[in-house]
């Protein structure tokens, strides 16, 4: 990252010699000017980075807890659905087996109608 910075690249460009084979003197590299923020600014950057990582860690923990809770809730909802506990039961509702038979009959009827329409065309 540092070697790709504008400051370093401009210094390299100024100090390189040759056209076909570019050379850079090691002594010149030792004299590169590398800008470093004051210690107080470095400490502030570090403090903010640590705070950000702490926040990320807390969010990750909350995500894991929520994910586990969601998984449990899905299982609970499915179990209640199979037991018929999600809604109040109406004695006037048709049994599930009758409903399935009616759906199958309607599907079969629709399939026959669509086949007869194809033959007419």
Automatic annotation (TrEMBL):
<protein>
    <submittedName>
        <fullName>Restriction modification system DNA specificity subunit</fullName>
    </submittedName>
</protein>
<keyword id="KW-0238">DNA-binding</keyword>
<keyword id="KW-0614">Plasmid</keyword>
<keyword id="KW-0680">Restriction system</keyword>
<comment type="similarity">
    <text>Belongs to the type-I restriction system S methylase family.</text>
</comment>
<dbReference type="GO" id="GO:0003677">
    <property type="term" value="F:DNA binding"/>
</dbReference>
<feature type="domain" description="Type I restriction modification DNA specificity">
    <location>
        <begin position="8"/>
        <end position="60"/>
    </location>
</feature>
<dbReference type="InterPro" id="IPR051212">
    <property type="entry name" value="Type-I_RE_S_subunit"/>
</dbReference>
<dbReference type="InterPro" id="IPR000055">
    <property type="entry name" value="Restrct_endonuc_typeI_TRD"/>
</dbReference>
<comment type="subunit">
    <text>The methyltransferase is composed of M and S polypeptides.</text>
</comment>
<dbReference type="Pfam" id="PF01420">
    <property type="entry name" value="Methylase_S"/>
</dbReference>
<dbReference type="InterPro" id="IPR044946">
    <property type="entry name" value="Restrct_endonuc_typeI_TRD_sf"/>
</dbReference>
<dbReference type="GO" id="GO:0009307">
    <property type="term" value="P:DNA restriction-modification system"/>
</dbReference>
């Amino acid at each position: 990252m540092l070697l790709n910075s504008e400051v370093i690249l401009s210094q390299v460009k100024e100090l390189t010699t040759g056209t076909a084979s570019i050379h850079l003197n090691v002594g010149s590299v030792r004299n590169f000017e590398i800008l470093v923020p004051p210690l107080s600014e470095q400490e502030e950057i570090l403090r903010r980075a640590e705070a950000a990582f702490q926040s990320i860690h807390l969010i990750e923990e909350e995500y894991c807890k929520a994910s586990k809770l969601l998984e449990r809730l899905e299982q609970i909802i499915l179990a209640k659905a199979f037991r018929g506990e999600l809604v109040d039961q109406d004695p006037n509702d048709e049994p599930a087996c009758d409903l399935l038979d009616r759906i199958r009959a309607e599907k079969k009827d629709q399939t026959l109608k669509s086949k007869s329409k194809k033959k007419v065309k």
